[in-house]
From TrEMBL:
Protein name per Swiss-Prot or TrEMBL: GTPase Der
Species per Swiss-Prot/TrEMBL record: Thermostichus vulcanus str. 'Rupite'
InterPro entries, sorted: AAA+_ATPase, G_ENGA, GTP-bd, GTPase_Der, KH_dom-like, KH_dom-like_a/b, P-loop_NTPase, Small_GTP-bd
The keyword Repeat is assigned to this record: yes
Function comment: GTPase that plays an essential role in the late steps of ribosome biogenesis.
PANTHER family reported in the protein's UniProt record: GTPASE DER
Chain residues that bind GTP 2: 184-191, 231-235, 296-299
């Protein structure tokens, strides 16, 4: 049974995201002293008093104004209420009761959900009770003073909402979702692609650059397997980013790469590979994440012929040569063209990213590589020797090669060794790492005997 869900709603700048972060014990939602920072639905898990639940943060609600993102924010809030079993209405105790609060409360009374009123920014006890008293006028029950910044009163808010939630029974056999982050420059179609994969308007889509700010997590199921899709903010050049909301958005995007199993690097087919795409690709490789390169807006490329796909492929491979191991997909988030193939590729690259090779097989491939190309010899006539190899970890697959002197193995031979391992062991879509460990022949012999006497890695 899924965890019960509580929607957090209110007008702009009342501290909804601060309160959500306090409940979850994280700083996942971006908090900034300006209205309209949160736009999409942001889910976090909360544990309180032995109970587990989820809360969904929403954007600030303003009725009677259809400018910029406000209609989209209202649509996202409605979607959150459709999923939720209860609502926490957050109001600002310092500013007092405003007409905008009354509007939101009137709207909530039309919804078939229990509502708890959390009066935020009540930093002191007696004064907080006085501040909260003004919100009895909303007619939604007892207003509870609290502070998302300092944490006081948050326990009382959770205690008030728990009786309205069904008990959840954790599924011990539940499969851990594969985490897929969607990254790229602004306006390449990341949110459109997320919505297409989810099958609903999960994220706000707009031609305005910087629409997505937080990293948006969505868990879906495809062919019986769970996936966690993470939409991220568009990443611009560092020198163009000012400290503020965009700075925090980009940091969230980089953290999304770190916590993902697979990264979908989205490229605009009309713009081709840019310098910023190359920097993102390098970041993905450095973090050791599996990757699928997704060329979006393929439907918008005009005058395509039998050579167009090959020309684009060659150009992308040349510019993203450090991701030559990543599969390439040409899709259209607008029409859905080939988007379902993304899950097939994700399964392939995740399997490679988590692959474990037995020590015996590693050394068979190693001996085959040595028979094709002997290790180099330096100017003094000293030749490199590879004694033994074994896989020491996965995610990404990492191998240790015991050699006489790591300095004898230059970049070209190391690239040859990686290419040979890829050809023989199929590491499609994942980086692989080699650690060249130098030891004396005697100590290597002892290491070999020790490894041969121990069970092979799984």
């Amino acid at each position: 049974m899924p965890l019960p869900l509580v929607a957090i709603v209110g007008r702009p700048n009342v501290g909804k995201s601060t309160l959500v972060n306090r409940m979850a014990g994280t700083r996942s939602a971006i908090v900034h002293d300006e209205p309209g920072v949160t736009r999409d639905r942001l889910y976090q898990e909360v544990e309180w008093n032995g109970r587990r639940l989820r809360v969904v943060d929403t954007g600030g609600l303003i009725f009677g104004d259809d400018s910029e993102f406000l209609p989209h924010i209202r649509q996202q809030a409605m979607a959150a209420l459709a999923e939720a079993q209860a609502v926490i209405l957050v109001v600002d105790g310092m500013e007092g009761l405003l007409p905008a609060d009354v509007e939101v409360a009137s709207w909530l009374r039309k919804q078939p959900l229990p509502v708890v009123v959390a009066v935020n920014k009540c930093e002191s006890g007696q004064m907080g009770l006085a501040q909260a008293a003004a919100f009895w006028e909303l007619g939604l029950g007892e207003p509870i003073p609290c502070s998302g910044i300092h944490g006081n009163g948050v326990a009382e808010v959770l205690e008030a909402v728990l009786p309205h939630l069904p008990e959840s029974v954790p599924d011990t056999a539940e499969q851990e979702p594969i985490a897929i982050s969607v990254v790229g420059r602004p306006n390449v179609g990341k949110s459109s692609l997320l919505n297409r994969l989810v099958g609903s308007e999960r994220a706000i889509v707009s031609p305005i650059s910087g629409t997505t700010r937080d990293a948006i997590d969505t868990v879906i199921e495809w062919e019986g397997r769970p996936y966690r899709l993470i939409d991220t903010a568009g990443i611009r050049k560092k020198n163009r980013v000012d400290y503020g909301v965009e700075f925090f958005s980009i940091n969230r995007a980089f953290k999304a790469i770190q916590r993902s199993d697979v990264v979908l690097l989205v490229i605009d087919a009309l713009d081709g590979v840019t310098e910023q795409d190359q920097k993102l690709a390098s970041r993905i490789e450095e973090e050791g994440r599996a990757c699928v390169i997704v060329v979006n807006k393929w439907d918008a490329v005009e005058d395509k012929d039998t050579y167009t796909l090959n020309e684009f492929t060659c150009d992308i491979r040349a510019k993203l040569y450090f991701l030559e191991w990543a599969p390439l997909l040409f899709v259209s988030a607008l029409t859905g063209q080939r988007t379902q193939k993304i899950f097939e590729q994700v399964d392939t690259v995740v399997a490679a990213h988590r692959k474990r090779i037995s020590t015996a097989v590693v050394n068979e491939v190693l001996q085959d590589a040595l028979s094709w190309q002997s290790p180099p010899t330096n100017r003094q006539g000293k030749q490199g020797k590879i004694y033994y190899g074994t896989q020491v970890s996965d995610r990404p697959p990492t191998f240790v090669l015991f050699v006489n002197d790591p300095d004898l193995f230059k970049d070209n031979y190391r690239r040859f060794m990686e290419k040979h391992f890829r050809q023989n062991l199929d590491f499609t879509g994942t980086p692989i790492r080699f650690r060249w460990r130098g030891k004396s022949e005697r100590s290597v012999g002892r290491a070999v005997q020790k490894l041969e006497g121990s069970p092979s890695p799984r």
